[in-house]
UniProtKB/TrEMBL annotation:
GO terms for molecular function: hydrolase activity. InterPro entries: Calcineurin-like_PHP, Metallo-depent_PP-like, PdeM-like, Pesterase_MJ0037-like. This is Metallophosphoesterase. It comes from Rhodohalobacter barkolensis. Residues 32-132 form the Calcineurin-like phosphoesterase domain. It comes from the Bacteria.
Length: 222
């Protein structure tokens, strides 16, 4: 079952499903791929006296559960920044959630915020790698630090890509987006409390913003 509002694109002769929940589903492999959950960030902020939505963590996990229950992936990949800081109760919420899917294989391609001791990931039955080749793609957190002479297309996150669109009434809208070119796919941040980085669009990029509950194609190249 294809979730409503999704967009199917082809890259390297593979069918990729861009999901309005800010994740990607590789149909041939049945892989669910997402990036930048930043679980625990709200707890970290509140501990520091900064206002943050208390239920963002649970909303992220509910949204992820919906995708898993709908798509039934064989493997879930987190492309970095799964957890934002040192362990807090939100990690244990995540761990409890993870054990509700005991048959699902999960791999974390580590990012700059993934600083927990390896024992946390081991107890949660999560594989941790620095980089993962899955021909014709290579999974990573930050594509800007990656150079390769291969024909693999990188799939990454890290920058929380977004675009700014002007509408009637001179209103500006900041929208999360997928960015796709021949060599690189950048995923939007899956987490609710992550922010956006407005990207500069190059001529070879295709941009797929998420508008409400729908992924659309938007050609912004001049």
């Amino acid at each position: 079952m294809i979730p409503e509002g999704s967009k199917i694109v082809e890259c390297q002769n593979q069918q990729l499903l861009l999901l309005p929940q800010k994740a990607l589903f590789w149909q041939e492999k049945q892989y669910l791929i997402l990036s930048d959950l930043h679980l625990g960030k709200t707890g970290h902020f509140r501990k520091s006296g900064i206002a943050a939505p208390a239920k963002a963590n649970l909303k992220n996990l509910d949204r992820l559960s919906h995708l898993i229950d709908t798509l039934n992936p064989v493997h879930l990949y987190f492309l970095g920044d799964l957890f934002h800081s040192s362990a807090n109760r939100e990690w244990f919420q995540f761990e409890e959630w993870r054990h509700s899917y005991p048959e699902l294989e999960i791999t974390l391609v580590s990012g700059n915020h993934d600083q927990l001791h390896t024992s946390f990931y081991r107890h949660a039955q999560i594989n941790v790698v620095e980089l993962l080749e899955a021909d014709p793609f290579v999974f990573m957190h930050d594509a800007s630090s990656y150079t390769s002479n291969s024909e693999l297309t990188s799939i990454a996150g890290h920058i929380h890509p977004g675009i700014k669109i002007s509408s009637k009434g001179r209103q500006n809208h900041r929208l999360p987006c997928f960015s796709i070119s021949k060599d690189q796919i950048i995923l939007p941040a899956f987490g609710e409390f992550t922010g956006l980085h407005i990207i500069q669009v190059e001529s070879d990029q295709k941009i797929y913003p998420i508008v409400g509950n729908k992924v659309i194609e938007l050609n912004m190249a001049k």
